[in-house]
Protein backbone atom coordinates (compact mmCIF):
# COMPACT_ATOMS: atom_id res chain seq x y z
CA UNK A 1 0.00 0.00 0.00
CA UNK A 2 1.21 3.52 -0.78
CA UNK A 3 2.33 5.81 2.05
CA UNK A 4 -0.49 7.69 3.78
CA UNK A 5 -1.13 11.33 2.88
CA UNK A 6 -1.38 12.22 6.55
CA UNK A 7 -0.02 10.31 9.50
CA UNK A 8 -0.72 11.27 13.08
CA UNK A 9 1.63 9.60 15.54
CA UNK A 10 0.69 9.68 19.21
CA UNK A 11 -0.45 13.29 19.27
CA UNK A 12 -1.14 15.07 22.54
CA UNK A 13 -2.44 18.62 22.76
CA UNK A 14 -2.14 20.81 25.83
CA UNK A 15 -3.67 24.24 26.43
CA UNK A 16 -2.38 26.67 29.00
CA UNK A 17 -2.10 26.34 31.89
CA UNK A 18 -2.36 22.53 31.79
CA UNK A 19 -5.48 21.34 30.03
CA UNK A 20 -4.92 18.08 28.24
CA UNK A 21 -7.33 18.22 25.29
CA UNK A 22 -5.99 15.40 23.11
CA UNK A 23 -4.03 12.44 24.35
CA UNK A 24 -2.01 9.94 22.41
CA UNK A 25 -4.03 9.94 19.21
CA UNK A 26 -2.71 8.10 16.16
CA UNK A 27 -4.26 7.40 12.79
CA UNK A 28 -3.53 7.80 9.10
CA UNK A 29 -5.40 9.02 6.07
CA UNK A 30 -4.76 7.84 2.55
CA UNK A 31 -5.17 9.79 -0.62
CA UNK A 32 -8.72 9.91 -1.94
CA UNK A 33 -10.38 8.97 1.35
CA UNK A 34 -13.11 10.69 3.30
CA UNK A 35 -12.40 10.09 6.97
CA UNK A 36 -14.79 11.14 9.71
CA UNK A 37 -13.64 12.31 13.13
CA UNK A 38 -16.49 11.90 15.57
CA UNK A 39 -17.05 12.78 19.19
CA UNK A 40 -19.25 14.71 21.57
CA UNK A 41 -18.78 18.31 22.73
CA UNK A 42 -15.29 18.83 24.07
CA UNK A 43 -14.02 15.48 22.84
CA UNK A 44 -11.03 17.14 21.19
CA UNK A 45 -11.94 17.19 17.49
CA UNK A 46 -11.19 20.87 16.99
CA UNK A 47 -7.98 20.62 19.00
CA UNK A 48 -6.75 17.78 16.83
CA UNK A 49 -7.48 19.72 13.62
CA UNK A 50 -5.73 22.77 15.09
CA UNK A 51 -2.72 20.61 15.78
CA UNK A 52 -2.62 19.41 12.17
CA UNK A 53 -2.84 22.97 10.75
CA UNK A 54 -0.38 24.29 13.34
CA UNK A 55 -2.93 26.73 14.75
CA UNK A 56 -2.60 25.78 18.41
CA UNK A 57 -0.21 28.58 19.31
CA UNK A 58 -2.83 31.15 18.39
CA UNK A 59 -5.16 29.51 20.92
CA UNK A 60 -2.62 29.29 23.74
CA UNK A 61 -2.09 25.64 23.15
CA UNK A 62 0.66 23.41 21.84
CA UNK A 63 1.44 19.96 20.60
CA UNK A 64 2.99 18.44 23.69
CA UNK A 65 3.83 15.12 22.08
CA UNK A 66 3.79 13.33 18.80
CA UNK A 67 4.56 13.72 15.13
CA UNK A 68 2.54 14.78 12.14
CA UNK A 69 3.65 13.54 8.76
CA UNK A 70 2.06 15.08 5.70
CA UNK A 71 3.02 13.90 2.25
CA UNK A 72 6.11 12.21 3.65
CA UNK A 73 7.38 15.26 5.58
CA UNK A 74 7.36 15.98 9.29
CA UNK A 75 5.25 19.13 9.57
CA UNK A 76 4.58 19.85 13.23
CA UNK A 77 6.87 22.88 13.05
CA UNK A 78 5.85 24.06 9.62
CA UNK A 79 3.90 27.35 9.80
CA UNK A 80 0.28 27.34 8.71
CA UNK A 81 0.85 29.39 5.57
CA UNK A 82 3.42 26.86 4.30
CA UNK A 83 0.98 24.03 4.94
CA UNK A 84 -1.66 25.90 2.97
CA UNK A 85 0.78 26.37 0.11
CA UNK A 86 1.36 22.64 -0.01
CA UNK A 87 -2.38 21.93 -0.09
CA UNK A 88 -3.16 21.17 3.56
CA UNK A 89 -6.11 23.48 4.11
CA UNK A 90 -8.67 23.77 6.89
CA UNK A 91 -12.24 25.07 7.03
CA UNK A 92 -12.61 26.34 10.57
CA UNK A 93 -15.35 25.55 13.01
CA UNK A 94 -17.84 28.43 12.97
CA UNK A 95 -16.94 29.41 9.38
CA UNK A 96 -14.91 32.52 10.20
CA UNK A 97 -15.76 34.40 7.03
CA UNK A 98 -14.40 37.92 6.70
CA UNK A 99 -17.79 39.53 7.17
CA UNK A 100 -16.87 43.04 6.01
CA UNK A 101 -15.26 41.79 2.83
CA UNK A 102 -17.32 40.93 -0.21
CA UNK A 103 -17.90 37.29 -1.11
CA UNK A 104 -15.41 37.54 -3.94
CA UNK A 105 -12.80 39.21 -1.74
CA UNK A 106 -13.24 36.41 0.80
CA UNK A 107 -12.55 33.88 -1.92
CA UNK A 108 -9.53 35.83 -3.14
CA UNK A 109 -7.93 35.69 0.30
CA UNK A 110 -7.78 31.94 -0.25
CA UNK A 111 -5.78 32.58 -3.41
CA UNK A 112 -3.48 34.92 -1.47
CA UNK A 113 -2.82 32.13 0.99
CA UNK A 114 -1.82 29.81 -1.80
CA UNK A 115 0.17 32.63 -3.49
CA UNK A 116 -1.63 31.93 -6.71
CA UNK A 117 -0.94 34.14 -9.71
CA UNK A 118 -3.73 36.48 -10.76
CA UNK A 119 -4.57 34.25 -13.69
CA UNK A 120 -4.81 31.13 -11.53
CA UNK A 121 -6.90 32.98 -8.98
CA UNK A 122 -9.34 33.93 -11.69
CA UNK A 123 -9.62 30.36 -12.94
CA UNK A 124 -10.13 29.08 -9.41
CA UNK A 125 -12.79 31.71 -8.79
CA UNK A 126 -14.69 30.40 -11.79
CA UNK A 127 -14.40 26.85 -10.50
CA UNK A 128 -15.63 27.76 -7.02
CA UNK A 129 -18.62 29.57 -8.52
CA UNK A 130 -19.40 26.41 -10.47
CA UNK A 131 -19.31 24.38 -7.27
CA UNK A 132 -21.39 26.94 -5.36
CA UNK A 133 -23.55 28.84 -7.86
CA UNK A 134 -25.36 30.69 -5.08
CA UNK A 135 -22.08 32.44 -4.18
CA UNK A 136 -21.73 33.83 -7.68
CA UNK A 137 -25.02 35.68 -7.41
CA UNK A 138 -23.76 37.35 -4.22
CA UNK A 139 -20.19 37.96 -5.38
CA UNK A 140 -20.17 41.69 -4.71
CA UNK A 141 -22.10 41.59 -1.43
CA UNK A 142 -20.46 41.66 1.98
CA UNK A 143 -20.15 38.17 3.42
CA UNK A 144 -21.98 39.40 6.51
CA UNK A 145 -25.20 39.47 4.52
CA UNK A 146 -25.04 35.76 3.63
CA UNK A 147 -27.14 33.12 5.36
CA UNK A 148 -25.42 30.59 7.60
CA UNK A 149 -25.42 27.97 4.89
CA UNK A 150 -23.99 30.36 2.33
CA UNK A 151 -21.30 31.39 4.78
CA UNK A 152 -20.36 27.75 5.18
CA UNK A 153 -20.17 27.44 1.39
CA UNK A 154 -18.03 30.57 1.33
CA UNK A 155 -15.67 29.17 3.94
CA UNK A 156 -15.34 25.97 1.91
CA UNK A 157 -14.97 27.97 -1.31
CA UNK A 158 -12.21 30.04 0.26
CA UNK A 159 -10.39 26.84 1.16
CA UNK A 160 -10.88 25.48 -2.38
CA UNK A 161 -9.22 28.64 -3.73
CA UNK A 162 -6.01 27.32 -2.18
CA UNK A 163 -6.24 24.16 -4.31
CA UNK A 164 -6.23 21.71 -1.41
CA UNK A 165 -4.98 18.14 -1.54
CA UNK A 166 -6.21 17.44 1.96
CA UNK A 167 -9.16 19.39 3.26
CA UNK A 168 -9.88 19.45 6.99
CA UNK A 169 -13.44 20.43 7.82
CA UNK A 170 -14.55 21.25 11.34
CA UNK A 171 -18.28 20.69 11.79
CA UNK A 172 -19.47 22.11 8.48
CA UNK A 173 -23.07 21.12 9.30
CA UNK A 174 -23.14 23.03 12.58
CA UNK A 175 -26.31 25.10 12.90
CA UNK A 176 -27.59 24.25 9.42
CA UNK A 177 -30.98 22.90 8.43
CA UNK A 178 -30.69 19.18 7.54
CA UNK A 179 -31.37 19.80 3.86
CA UNK A 180 -28.67 22.43 3.63
CA UNK A 181 -26.22 20.24 5.53
CA UNK A 182 -26.96 17.41 3.12
CA UNK A 183 -26.31 19.71 0.18
CA UNK A 184 -22.91 20.62 1.59
CA UNK A 185 -22.00 17.00 2.26
CA UNK A 186 -23.05 16.09 -1.28
CA UNK A 187 -20.79 18.81 -2.66
CA UNK A 188 -17.88 17.52 -0.60
CA UNK A 189 -18.55 13.97 -1.74
CA UNK A 190 -18.56 15.16 -5.34
CA UNK A 191 -15.25 16.98 -4.92
CA UNK A 192 -13.86 13.80 -3.43
CA UNK A 193 -15.18 11.67 -6.27
CA UNK A 194 -14.37 13.94 -9.21
CA UNK A 195 -11.19 15.69 -8.10
CA UNK A 196 -9.80 13.09 -5.73
CA UNK A 197 -9.88 15.57 -2.85
CA UNK A 198 -8.95 13.86 0.40
CA UNK A 199 -11.14 14.92 3.31
CA UNK A 200 -10.94 14.75 7.08
CA UNK A 201 -14.34 15.64 8.43
CA UNK A 202 -14.88 16.43 12.11
CA UNK A 203 -18.55 16.15 12.98
CA UNK A 204 -20.97 15.78 15.85
CA UNK A 205 -23.56 14.89 13.27
CA UNK A 206 -22.42 11.26 13.24
CA UNK A 207 -25.20 9.92 11.02
CA UNK A 208 -24.31 12.14 8.07
CA UNK A 209 -20.58 11.86 8.53
CA UNK A 210 -20.74 8.07 8.64
CA UNK A 211 -22.88 8.08 5.54
CA UNK A 212 -20.20 9.84 3.49
CA UNK A 213 -16.99 8.59 5.09
CA UNK A 214 -15.22 5.37 4.28
CA UNK A 215 -13.54 5.24 7.69
CA UNK A 216 -14.21 6.97 10.98
CA UNK A 217 -12.47 7.59 14.29
CA UNK A 218 -14.23 8.32 17.54
CA UNK A 219 -12.73 10.63 20.15
CA UNK A 220 -13.77 10.50 23.75
CA UNK A 221 -12.25 12.89 26.27
CA UNK A 222 -9.32 13.46 23.98
CA UNK A 223 -8.54 9.78 23.45
CA UNK A 224 -9.27 7.58 20.48
CA UNK A 225 -12.15 5.37 21.63
CA UNK A 226 -12.51 3.40 18.45
CA UNK A 227 -12.05 3.58 14.73
CA UNK A 228 -12.19 1.69 11.48
CA UNK A 229 -14.24 1.29 8.32
CA UNK A 230 -17.65 2.91 8.69
CA UNK A 231 -19.44 -0.34 7.87
CA UNK A 232 -17.79 -1.98 10.88
CA UNK A 233 -18.68 0.90 13.19
CA UNK A 234 -22.25 0.96 11.99
CA UNK A 235 -22.57 -2.72 12.82
CA UNK A 236 -21.56 -2.21 16.43
CA UNK A 237 -24.50 -1.19 18.59
CA UNK A 238 -22.30 -0.58 21.60
CA UNK A 239 -20.31 2.12 19.79
CA UNK A 240 -23.34 3.64 18.18
CA UNK A 241 -25.15 4.16 21.44
CA UNK A 242 -22.17 4.83 23.72
CA UNK A 243 -20.24 7.33 21.65
CA UNK A 244 -22.41 8.49 18.86
CA UNK A 245 -25.80 8.80 20.48
CA UNK A 246 -27.31 6.80 17.68
CA UNK A 247 -29.56 3.80 17.50
CA UNK A 248 -28.69 1.42 14.72
CA UNK A 249 -32.07 1.43 12.93
CA UNK A 250 -31.85 5.17 12.61
CA UNK A 251 -28.49 4.93 10.96
CA UNK A 252 -29.66 2.32 8.53
CA UNK A 253 -32.57 4.57 7.68
CA UNK A 254 -30.37 7.63 7.09
CA UNK A 255 -27.75 5.66 5.27
CA UNK A 256 -30.25 4.24 2.84
CA UNK A 257 -31.64 7.59 1.73
CA UNK B 1 -23.25 87.43 13.63
CA UNK B 2 -20.31 87.70 11.30
CA UNK B 3 -20.83 84.81 8.89
CA UNK B 4 -17.62 85.06 6.95
CA UNK B 5 -15.73 85.08 10.23
CA UNK B 6 -17.61 81.98 11.39
CA UNK B 7 -16.89 80.20 8.13
CA UNK B 8 -13.24 81.13 8.48
CA UNK B 9 -13.19 79.68 12.00
CA UNK B 10 -14.91 76.50 10.87
CA UNK B 11 -12.48 75.99 8.01
CA UNK B 12 -9.40 76.58 10.11
CA UNK B 13 -10.86 74.25 12.74
CA UNK B 14 -11.31 71.52 10.15
CA UNK B 15 -7.83 72.11 8.80
CA UNK B 16 -6.36 71.85 12.29
CA UNK B 17 -8.37 68.67 12.70
CA UNK B 18 -6.73 67.14 9.63
CA UNK B 19 -3.44 67.15 11.52
CA UNK B 20 -5.03 65.21 14.37
CA UNK B 21 -6.50 62.77 11.88
CA UNK B 22 -3.08 62.12 10.43
CA UNK B 23 -1.63 61.08 13.78
CA UNK B 24 -4.74 59.07 14.60
CA UNK B 25 -4.53 57.10 11.34
CA UNK B 26 -1.10 55.85 12.37
CA UNK B 27 -2.71 54.51 15.54
CA UNK B 28 -5.64 52.93 13.78
CA UNK B 29 -3.53 51.04 11.24
CA UNK B 30 -1.57 49.32 13.96
CA UNK B 31 -4.56 48.76 16.20
CA UNK B 32 -6.54 47.17 13.39
CA UNK B 33 -3.91 44.64 12.40
CA UNK B 34 -2.35 43.79 15.72
CA UNK B 35 -4.71 44.99 18.42
CA UNK B 36 -1.95 47.09 19.96
CA UNK B 37 -2.69 50.59 21.14
CA UNK B 38 0.64 51.99 20.10
CA UNK B 39 1.42 54.71 22.60
CA UNK B 40 4.82 55.14 20.96
CA UNK B 41 3.23 56.72 17.88
CA UNK B 42 3.95 60.19 19.31
CA UNK B 43 7.57 59.37 20.01
CA UNK B 44 7.94 57.95 16.55
CA UNK B 45 6.63 61.24 15.22
CA UNK B 46 9.12 63.20 17.31
CA UNK B 47 11.93 60.86 16.38
CA UNK B 48 11.13 61.28 12.70
CA UNK B 49 10.97 65.06 12.81
CA UNK B 50 14.17 65.29 14.83
CA UNK B 51 16.05 62.93 12.58
CA UNK B 52 14.92 64.79 9.50
CA UNK B 53 15.80 68.23 10.87
CA UNK B 54 19.19 67.11 12.08
CA UNK B 55 20.07 65.48 8.77
CA UNK B 56 18.84 68.56 6.95
CA UNK B 57 20.89 70.82 9.21
CA UNK B 58 23.93 68.66 8.48
CA UNK B 59 23.56 69.94 4.94
CA UNK B 60 21.66 67.13 3.26
CA UNK B 61 19.17 68.35 0.67
CA UNK B 62 15.48 68.12 1.57
CA UNK B 63 14.61 65.02 -0.45
CA UNK B 64 17.66 63.05 0.52
CA UNK B 65 17.06 63.81 4.19
CA UNK B 66 13.41 62.85 3.69
CA UNK B 67 14.14 59.52 2.04
CA UNK B 68 16.85 58.69 4.54
CA UNK B 69 14.57 59.46 7.47
CA UNK B 70 11.80 57.46 5.86
CA UNK B 71 14.11 54.47 5.58
CA UNK B 72 15.07 54.85 9.23
CA UNK B 73 11.41 55.13 10.29
CA UNK B 74 10.33 52.07 8.35
CA UNK B 75 13.25 50.16 9.82
CA UNK B 76 12.35 51.38 13.30
CA UNK B 77 8.74 50.31 12.85
CA UNK B 78 9.69 46.88 11.58
CA UNK B 79 12.19 46.42 14.42
CA UNK B 80 9.65 47.41 17.07
CA UNK B 81 7.24 44.88 15.68
CA UNK B 82 9.85 42.14 15.51
CA UNK B 83 11.81 42.71 18.69
CA UNK B 84 9.24 44.07 21.11
CA UNK B 85 5.77 43.04 20.04
CA UNK B 86 6.23 39.68 18.35
CA UNK B 87 7.63 38.02 21.50
CA UNK B 88 4.71 39.45 23.44
CA UNK B 89 2.22 37.78 21.18
CA UNK B 90 -0.80 36.36 23.03
CA UNK B 91 -0.27 38.66 26.00
CA UNK B 92 -3.18 40.69 27.31
CA UNK B 93 -3.69 44.14 25.76
CA UNK B 94 -2.54 45.93 28.90
CA UNK B 95 0.86 44.23 28.67
CA UNK B 96 1.22 45.35 25.08
CA UNK B 97 0.15 48.85 25.95
CA UNK B 98 2.73 49.01 28.74
CA UNK B 99 5.33 47.76 26.30
CA UNK B 100 4.62 50.57 23.86
CA UNK B 101 4.54 53.06 26.72
CA UNK B 102 8.01 51.93 27.75
CA UNK B 103 9.03 51.99 24.13
CA UNK B 104 7.95 55.60 23.77
CA UNK B 105 10.37 56.61 26.53
CA UNK B 106 13.18 54.61 24.97
CA UNK B 107 12.59 56.20 21.57
CA UNK B 108 12.45 59.67 23.07
CA UNK B 109 15.54 59.04 25.16
CA UNK B 110 17.30 57.63 22.13
CA UNK B 111 16.38 60.65 20.04
CA UNK B 112 17.61 62.95 22.79
CA UNK B 113 20.85 61.02 23.07
CA UNK B 114 21.56 61.12 19.36
CA UNK B 115 20.27 64.54 18.39
CA UNK B 116 20.44 66.59 21.58
CA UNK B 117 17.70 68.53 23.29
CA UNK B 118 17.61 71.93 21.66
CA UNK B 119 14.61 73.19 19.71
CA UNK B 120 15.06 73.13 15.95
CA UNK B 121 13.28 75.29 13.44
CA UNK B 122 11.84 73.44 10.50
CA UNK B 123 11.02 75.33 7.35
CA UNK B 124 9.14 73.40 4.70
CA UNK B 125 9.13 76.45 2.47
CA UNK B 126 5.42 77.12 2.86
CA UNK B 127 4.66 80.43 4.47
CA UNK B 128 2.26 80.30 7.38
CA UNK B 129 0.44 83.39 6.19
CA UNK B 130 -3.28 83.89 5.95
CA UNK B 131 -4.66 83.55 2.46
CA UNK B 132 -7.64 85.78 1.88
CA UNK B 133 -10.53 83.96 0.21
CA UNK B 134 -13.15 86.59 -0.40
CA UNK B 135 -13.27 87.97 3.10
CA UNK B 136 -12.35 84.71 4.82
CA UNK B 137 -8.79 84.27 6.05
CA UNK B 138 -7.28 80.81 5.80
CA UNK B 139 -3.70 79.85 6.53
CA UNK B 140 -1.82 78.72 3.47
CA UNK B 141 0.12 76.28 5.61
CA UNK B 142 -3.09 74.72 6.94
CA UNK B 143 -4.25 74.16 3.39
CA UNK B 144 -0.95 72.54 2.51
CA UNK B 145 -1.20 70.21 5.52
CA UNK B 146 -4.75 69.30 4.66
CA UNK B 147 -3.67 68.57 1.09
CA UNK B 148 -0.84 66.29 2.21
CA UNK B 149 -3.01 64.47 4.74
CA UNK B 150 -5.78 64.16 2.18
CA UNK B 151 -3.37 62.69 -0.35
CA UNK B 152 -2.08 60.15 2.17
CA UNK B 153 -5.59 59.12 3.09
CA UNK B 154 -6.55 58.79 -0.57
CA UNK B 155 -3.52 56.64 -1.38
CA UNK B 156 -4.12 54.47 1.67
CA UNK B 157 -7.74 54.08 0.69
CA UNK B 158 -6.85 52.98 -2.84
CA UNK B 159 -4.18 50.56 -1.63
CA UNK B 160 -6.50 49.04 0.96
CA UNK B 161 -9.37 48.67 -1.47
CA UNK B 162 -7.71 47.58 -4.66
CA UNK B 163 -4.43 45.77 -3.98
CA UNK B 164 -3.53 42.32 -2.72
CA UNK B 165 -1.67 43.76 0.25
CA UNK B 166 -4.74 45.83 1.05
CA UNK B 167 -6.98 42.78 0.87
CA UNK B 168 -4.67 40.84 3.18
CA UNK B 169 -4.64 43.80 5.58
CA UNK B 170 -8.42 44.06 5.68
CA UNK B 171 -8.82 40.32 6.18
CA UNK B 172 -6.28 40.22 8.99
CA UNK B 173 -7.80 43.31 10.56
CA UNK B 174 -11.19 41.63 10.71
CA UNK B 175 -10.21 38.18 11.91
CA UNK B 176 -6.58 37.32 12.63
CA UNK B 177 -7.25 33.68 13.34
CA UNK B 178 -9.10 33.18 10.07
CA UNK B 179 -6.37 35.09 8.23
CA UNK B 180 -3.75 32.84 9.77
CA UNK B 181 -5.73 29.75 8.82
CA UNK B 182 -6.22 31.04 5.28
CA UNK B 183 -2.46 31.18 4.89
CA UNK B 184 -1.95 34.93 5.04
CA UNK B 185 1.49 35.84 6.34
CA UNK B 186 0.61 37.86 9.41
CA UNK B 187 4.19 38.84 10.29
CA UNK B 188 4.60 40.36 6.85
CA UNK B 189 1.34 42.23 7.17
CA UNK B 190 2.45 43.53 10.58
CA UNK B 191 5.81 44.62 9.22
CA UNK B 192 4.20 46.51 6.35
CA UNK B 193 1.73 48.15 8.71
CA UNK B 194 4.49 49.33 11.03
CA UNK B 195 6.43 50.61 8.06
CA UNK B 196 3.44 52.64 6.90
CA UNK B 197 2.92 53.89 10.45
CA UNK B 198 6.54 55.02 10.40
CA UNK B 199 5.92 56.93 7.19
CA UNK B 200 2.83 58.60 8.61
CA UNK B 201 4.80 59.49 11.73
CA UNK B 202 7.40 61.17 9.52
CA UNK B 203 4.88 63.20 7.59
CA UNK B 204 3.03 64.13 10.77
CA UNK B 205 6.29 65.03 12.46
CA UNK B 206 7.32 67.33 9.63
CA UNK B 207 3.99 69.11 9.48
CA UNK B 208 3.64 69.53 13.23
CA UNK B 209 7.33 70.35 13.53
CA UNK B 210 7.09 73.07 10.94
CA UNK B 211 4.29 74.62 12.92
CA UNK B 212 5.50 74.37 16.49
CA UNK B 213 9.22 73.87 16.05
CA UNK B 214 10.84 70.48 16.47
CA UNK B 215 11.07 69.91 20.20
CA UNK B 216 10.28 67.27 22.73
CA UNK B 217 6.76 68.43 23.36
CA UNK B 218 6.06 67.18 19.84
CA UNK B 219 5.57 63.69 21.17
CA UNK B 220 2.63 65.02 23.15
CA UNK B 221 0.48 65.17 20.02
CA UNK B 222 -0.16 61.57 20.98
CA UNK B 223 -2.25 62.92 23.84
CA UNK B 224 -4.20 65.00 21.36
CA UNK B 225 -4.97 62.03 19.19
CA UNK B 226 -6.35 59.86 21.98
CA UNK B 227 -9.60 61.87 22.14
CA UNK B 228 -9.75 61.66 18.36
CA UNK B 229 -9.65 57.88 18.59
CA UNK B 230 -12.29 57.78 21.29
CA UNK B 231 -14.58 59.96 19.18
CA UNK B 232 -14.00 58.16 15.89
CA UNK B 233 -13.44 54.62 17.11
CA UNK B 234 -10.07 52.93 17.54
CA UNK B 235 -10.47 50.56 14.64
CA UNK B 236 -11.75 52.81 11.88
CA UNK B 237 -9.71 54.86 9.45
CA UNK B 238 -12.79 56.83 8.48
CA UNK B 239 -13.36 57.29 12.20
CA UNK B 240 -9.88 58.71 12.63
CA UNK B 241 -10.52 61.23 9.88
CA UNK B 242 -13.96 62.29 11.05
CA UNK B 243 -12.87 62.21 14.70
CA UNK B 244 -9.89 64.43 13.91
CA UNK B 245 -12.06 66.92 12.05
CA UNK B 246 -14.61 66.97 14.87
CA UNK B 247 -12.00 67.51 17.54
CA UNK B 248 -10.26 70.21 15.54
CA UNK B 249 -13.55 71.94 14.84
CA UNK B 250 -14.75 71.76 18.43
CA UNK B 251 -11.45 73.05 19.75
CA UNK B 252 -11.33 76.00 17.41
CA UNK B 253 -14.99 76.93 17.80
CA UNK B 254 -14.86 76.73 21.59
CA UNK B 255 -11.61 78.64 21.72
CA UNK B 256 -13.00 81.48 19.65
CA UNK B 257 -16.55 81.69 20.94
CA UNK B 258 -16.42 80.35 24.48
CA UNK B 259 -12.78 80.83 25.43
CA UNK B 260 -12.97 84.59 25.98
CA UNK B 261 -15.69 84.13 28.62
CA UNK B 262 -13.89 81.58 30.71
CA UNK B 263 -10.40 82.95 30.37
CA UNK B 264 -8.84 80.80 27.66
CA UNK B 265 -6.96 77.54 27.98
CA UNK B 266 -10.04 75.75 26.77
CA UNK B 267 -8.14 73.96 24.01
CA UNK B 268 -6.21 72.12 26.71
CA UNK B 269 -9.17 70.06 27.84
CA UNK B 270 -12.11 70.47 25.50
CA UNK B 271 -11.06 67.52 23.34
CA UNK B 272 -11.08 65.32 26.42
CA UNK B 273 -14.47 66.62 27.46
CA UNK B 274 -15.76 65.72 24.00
CA UNK B 275 -14.16 62.27 24.24
CA UNK B 276 -15.72 61.73 27.64
CA UNK B 277 -19.13 62.61 26.28
CA UNK B 278 -18.62 60.05 23.51
CA UNK B 279 -17.49 57.39 25.95
CA UNK B 280 -20.73 57.83 27.82
CA UNK B 281 -22.97 57.91 24.76
CA UNK B 282 -21.21 55.68 22.24
CA UNK B 283 -18.25 53.80 23.73
CA UNK B 284 -17.15 52.30 20.41
CA UNK B 285 -16.83 55.76 18.87
CA UNK B 286 -18.65 56.94 15.78
CA UNK B 287 -17.29 54.29 13.41
CA UNK B 288 -15.79 51.71 15.76
CA UNK B 289 -16.88 48.13 15.23
CA UNK B 290 -15.58 45.81 17.80
CA UNK B 291 -12.65 45.01 19.95
CA UNK B 292 -9.80 43.28 18.17
CA UNK B 293 -8.82 39.84 19.32
CA UNK B 294 -5.16 39.20 18.97
CA UNK B 295 -3.54 36.01 17.77
N1 LIG C 1 -8.16 27.62 23.75
C1 LIG C 1 -8.42 26.71 24.70
N2 LIG C 1 -7.90 26.87 25.94
C2 LIG C 1 -8.13 25.95 26.89
N3 LIG C 1 -8.85 24.85 26.71
C3 LIG C 1 -9.39 24.62 25.51
C4 LIG C 1 -9.21 25.53 24.44
N4 LIG C 1 -9.85 25.06 23.36
C5 LIG C 1 -10.42 23.89 23.75
N5 LIG C 1 -10.15 23.62 25.03
C6 LIG C 1 -10.56 22.42 25.79
O1 LIG C 1 -10.07 21.28 25.13
C7 LIG C 1 -11.02 20.25 25.14
C8 LIG C 1 -11.32 19.81 23.73
O2 LIG C 1 -11.99 20.86 23.06
P1 LIG C 1 -12.27 20.86 21.51
O3 LIG C 1 -12.77 22.21 21.15
O4 LIG C 1 -11.09 20.37 20.80
O5 LIG C 1 -13.45 19.80 21.40
P2 LIG C 1 -14.43 19.50 20.19
O6 LIG C 1 -14.48 18.04 20.05
O7 LIG C 1 -14.05 20.28 19.01
O8 LIG C 1 -15.83 20.02 20.77
P3 LIG C 1 -17.06 20.68 19.98
O9 LIG C 1 -17.79 19.56 19.33
O10 LIG C 1 -17.86 21.30 21.05
O11 LIG C 1 -16.51 21.64 19.00
C9 LIG C 1 -12.23 20.79 25.88
O12 LIG C 1 -12.17 20.35 27.20
C10 LIG C 1 -12.06 22.28 25.81
O13 LIG C 1 -12.61 22.89 26.95
MG1 LIG D 1 -14.99 21.66 17.88
Automatic annotation (TrEMBL), chain A:
Which CDD domains did the record assign?
A: ABC_TM1139_LivF_branched
- UniProt record similarity statement: Belongs to the ABC transporter superfamily.
Q: What is the official name of this protein in its record?
A: ABC transporter ATP-binding protein
Q: Which PANTHER family match?
A: HIGH-AFFINITY BRANCHED-CHAIN AMINO ACID TRANSPORT ATP-BINDING PROTEIN LIVF
Q: Which Pfam families match?
A: ABC_tran
InterPro entries, per the entry: AAA+_ATPase (IPR003593), ABC_transporter-like_ATP-bd (IPR003439), ABC_transporter-like_CS (IPR017871), BCAA_Transport_ATP-bd_LivF (IPR052156), P-loop_NTPase (IPR027417)
Key words of the record: Amino-acid transport, ATP-binding, Nucleotide-binding, Transport
The answer to whether the entry has keyword Nucleotide-binding is: yes
Give GO BP annotations, semicolon-separated: L-amino acid transport
Q: Which domain of life is it from?
A: Bacteria
Residues in domain ABC transporter? 6-246
The GO terms describing molecular function are: ATP binding; ATP hydrolysis activity; branched-chain amino acid transmembrane transporter activity
From TrEMBL, chain B:
Q: Which PANTHER family match?
A: ABC TRANSPORTER PERMEASE PROTEIN, BRANCHED-CHAIN AMINO ACID TRANSPORT SYSTEM PERMEASE PROTEIN LIVH
Q: What is its main location?
A: membrane
What Pfam family is a match for this entry? BPD_transp_2
For this entry, the protein name equals: Branched-chain amino acid ABC transporter permease
Give the GO molecular function terms.
Answer: transmembrane transporter activity
- Write down the superkingdom of origin: Bacteria
What are the entry keywords? Answer: Amino-acid transport, Cell membrane, Membrane, Transmembrane, Transmembrane helix, Transport
Record's bilayer topology term: Multi-pass membrane protein
Query: Transmembrane ranges?
Result: 6-29, 36-56, 62-84, 96-115, 135-160, 189-208, 228-249, 261-281
Query: What is the protein's species of origin?
Result: Acidisoma silvae
Keyword Transport part of the UniProt annotation: yes
Gene Ontology process terms (BP): amino acid transport
One GO cellular component term = plasma membrane
What is the similarity comment for this entry?
A: Belongs to the binding-protein-dependent transport system permease family. LivHM subfamily.
Which residues, by range, are in coiled-coil regions?
none
Its localization reads: Cell membrane
Amino acid sequence: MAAPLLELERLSVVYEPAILAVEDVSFSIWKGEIVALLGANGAGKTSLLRAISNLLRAKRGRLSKGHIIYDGQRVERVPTHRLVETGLVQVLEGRHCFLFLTVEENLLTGALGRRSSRGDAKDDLGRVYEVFPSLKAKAKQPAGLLSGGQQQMLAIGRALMARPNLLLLDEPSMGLAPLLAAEIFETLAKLNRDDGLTILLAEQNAASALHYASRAFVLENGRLASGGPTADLLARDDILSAYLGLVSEKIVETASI
Amino acid sequence: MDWSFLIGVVISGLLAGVMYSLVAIGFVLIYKTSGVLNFAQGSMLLFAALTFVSLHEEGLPFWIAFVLTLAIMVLLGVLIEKIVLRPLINQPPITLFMATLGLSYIIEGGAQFVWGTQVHQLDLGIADVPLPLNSILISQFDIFCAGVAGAIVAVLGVVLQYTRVGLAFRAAAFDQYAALNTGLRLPRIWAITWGVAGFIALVGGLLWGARTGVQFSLSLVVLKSLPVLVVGGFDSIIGAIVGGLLVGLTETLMEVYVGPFIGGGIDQWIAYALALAFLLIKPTGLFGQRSVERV
